[in-house]
Amino acid sequence: MHEMSLCESIIQIIEEEARQHGFARVQAVHLEIGALAGVEIPAMEFSFDVVRRGTVAEDARLVIHTIPGTAWCMGCDSNVEVRERLQACPKCGSWRLQVTGGEDLRIRHLEVDDRAHDEANSGMEHEQTKQHTAGS
Amino acid sequence: MVQVERAILSKNDALARENRGWLRRRGVWALNLVSSPGAGKTTLLVETLKHLQAQDVPVAVIEGDQETANDAERIRQTGAPAVQVNTGKGCHLDAHMVGHALERLEMPAGALLFIENVGNLVCPAAFDLGEARRVVILSVTEGDDKPQKYPDMFAGADLMIISKMDLLEHVDFDVARCIALARQVNPGLQVMGLSARNGHGMEQWLAWLQAQRSAWLLDGAGLPEDALRVEHSPQHGEPSATTAQQAAE
Ligand SMILES: Nc1nc2c(ncn2[C@@H]2O[C@H](COP(=O)(O)OP(=O)(O)OP(=O)(O)O)[C@@H](O)[C@H]2O)c(=O)[nH]1
Ligand SMILES: [Mg+2]
Ligand SMILES: [Zn+2]
Fold first, then answer.
1. Would residue A92 count as lying in a domain?
2. Hey, what's the torsion of the CAs at A74, A78, A84, A87, to 10 degrees?
3. pLDDT in tens, B155-211
4. Closest chain B residue to the Cα of A35, Cα to Cα
5. Whose CA is nearest to atom 5 of ligand 1?
6. What chain A residue is nearest to B181 in terms of C-alpha separation?
7. Which of A61, B11, B180, B221 has the most CB atoms around its CB within 10 Å?
8. Is the pLDDT of residue A42 over 90?
9. Residue A114: predicted pLDDT
10. Do B98 and B242 touch, CB atoms closer than 8 A?
11. Of B63, B103, B98, the residue nearest B80 (C-alpha)
12. Residue A90 lies in a domain
């Protein structure tokens, strides 16, 4: 269940971004998850639900963009798409594949409340910002 | 919308780079030992430490375990310095935990450091600790299909040790099939069979350790001091304890 640690890292990064960009509330978190990154999406969603409590991402939706796995096939000298690490080349059947992509786990972007963004930038208190966005 | 474009494990990876730099500057060669629970990590370590200490090779151990200090105790009985890291609910070591353990460990320069990860064939694969080499141990009692079921762990390893070879005749473990599956995931994977119980294969393992460590020391010898230094970008938040220690030097 390292999905839990991954989600804790996601929250840490979001809180850093929140301090840096001055937003107090995140509406959606867009992740890029490689098909070969060894992550179970349902476990990720479950863990995110647990760790977001009491943070700026408290109400955030998790949007997961899956990146297909890719490999270089030494059998037919071409780039192919793969679903898992251990599979034969879909073109020529060779097993001599070298994974080239789809192993990454990234935070792509955050959807934040723009009003909260501006107000926080103009130095308003977090509390006020929160009330404002809650009513909008 | 706020563009982030950061790797989720960027913090761990940055701390791992710090650990790697810290170890490099001290000439400490570190191994990360991973396996499922009970594959024989501690038993192999105990035997290995006895051999190395008999040859006056300086050694040290970081023991990862969810709850107990049993394994660290077994290690200390050999006379080797060991630090226990309890991960609690965590199912793997990460670079931050190892960084703290490094500060607590009394370890001479040039030591050979063994890091025993938490027994788990899934999660430790994702976390770089700053080690020089990663070794996955698979015992013959677990079945020869494990590289197929847990490919990430085998994809990230430098060496696979097939352990408990003394039990091979009692189980239907096909060594050739296991190696073939592992090499499909990781064509460059080195492999050796070993029994910590009867000592078969220990020579080969000790020779591997020595050869790999020598190559690593030679590799670093040509590097200028500042090529080894890792900057600490303020973006990564509070400086880790390892950085603080470097700064204090
Ligand atoms: N027959 C045989 N048994 C072994 C061998 N190596 C270890 N064992 C036994 O396997 C069991 C587990 O060994 P450990 O060394 O504690 O395994 P571990 O990987 O450190 O276990 P965790 O730290 O709990 O994940 C013990 O009962 C050992 O005696 C071996 O080479 N042959
Ligand atoms: Mg152990
Ligand atoms: Zn092909």
1. no
2. -50
3. 999 999 999 999 999 999 999 999 999 999 999 999 999 999 999 999 999 999 999
4. B152
5. B164
6. A86
7. B11
8. yes
9. 64
10. no
11. B63
12. no
Supply the CATH number for residue A120's domain.
3.30.2320.50
Helix runs in chain B, H state only: 10-25, 41-54, 70-76, 95-104, 146-149, 151-155, 175-185, 202-221, 241-248
Point out the ligand 1 atom lying closest to the alpha carbon of residue B39. Answer: 19
Distance from residue B72's CA to the centre of ligand 2 (Å): 8
**What does pTM read for this prediction?**
0.84
Backbone angles phi, psi at B201, to 5 degrees: 95, -10
The range of the structural domain enclosing residue A34 comes to: 2-67+104-131
Domains and CATH numbers, chain B: 2-133+198-248 (3.40.50.300)
Structural domain tally of chain A?
Answer: 1
pLDDT tens track for B110-166: 999 999 999 999 999 999 999 999 999 999 999 999 999 999 999 999 999 999 999
Q: For this complex, say whether ipTM is above 0.90.
A: no
**R_g of chain B computed on alpha carbons:** 18
User: What is the rounded CA–CA span in Å between residue B26 and residue B109?
Assistant: 5
- How many other CB atoms sit within 10 Å of the CB of residue B155? 20
Give the H or E element holding residue B109: none
Distances in Å between the Cα of B195 and the Cα atoms of A20, A24, A83, B207 are: 54, 57, 36, 15
- State both tokens at A72: 């270089």
Q: Which ligand is the nearest neighbour of the Cα of B137?
A: 1
Q: Within 6 Å (CB) of ligand 1, which residues are found?
A: B 35, 37-43, 71, 119, 163-164, 166-167, 195-197
pLDDT above 70 coverage of chain A, percent: 82
For residues B177 and B63, what is the distance between their CA atoms, to the nearest angstrom? 31
Assigned domain for A84 exists: no
Is residue A41 within 8 Å of residue A128, measured between CB atoms?
Answer: no
- The DSSP result for A22-90, as a single string, is T-S-EEEEEEEEETTS---HHHHHHHHHHHTTTSTTTT-EEEEEEEPEEEEETTTTEEEEESSSS---T
